[in-house]
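re: ur question from earlier - yeah i can do the single chain one, its not a big deal. heres the input i used so u can compare w yours
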Amino acid sequence: MKSGDSTTIEVAEPSSSSKGKSTTVLVAAPKATKMKKGLAIFDFVLRLGAIIAALAAAATMGTSDESLPFFTQFFQFEASYDDMPTFQFFLIAMALVSGYLVLSLPISIVTIVRPHASGLKLLLIIMDTVALTLATSAAAAAAAIVYLAHNGNASSNWLAICNQFTDFCQNVSGAVVAAFVSVAVFIFLILLSALAIRKH
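and the output i got, formated as tokens:
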């Protein structure tokens, strides 16, 4: 029997034929169940928030494109996310994270209906950790490129482009911020699942 799920009470039978015998009565612990269900509901809400953040990051990066109003006969000044492999990786990674979060919603709903299903919570912890790693790597790599776009690097002759491509830089910066928001939510999700398993 799991601790916190029920309480065992020994009740003596009053009849003379069963003198000296006792009956075991199980009394459920509703507080523990309500707490586990509350944690599961909070998990579901956090997943919805993570979906919004991850989708916003992917969509913003995917629509980051700006062309300057002046151009030469042979060259047009344009900046787009697909000009840089790092931003392409960011878009793919955040799209995968968004897809995983959507697929994890049914599992989260099951944990609300069955708050004692520790196996499903363990599965969510493992998959959330993988998604957290992917989102963190994508956000960190894109953040490094965004920093160079804003400040440049004289040692490597990398020129700052954000003075010219202001809209492009604002979009990619917003995408990186949204990605880090999803990373923070993932950390809370993992801690929440670990707490729910510990309550078992």
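Helices lie at 30-62, 85-113, 118-151, 166-198. not sure if urs matches, ping me
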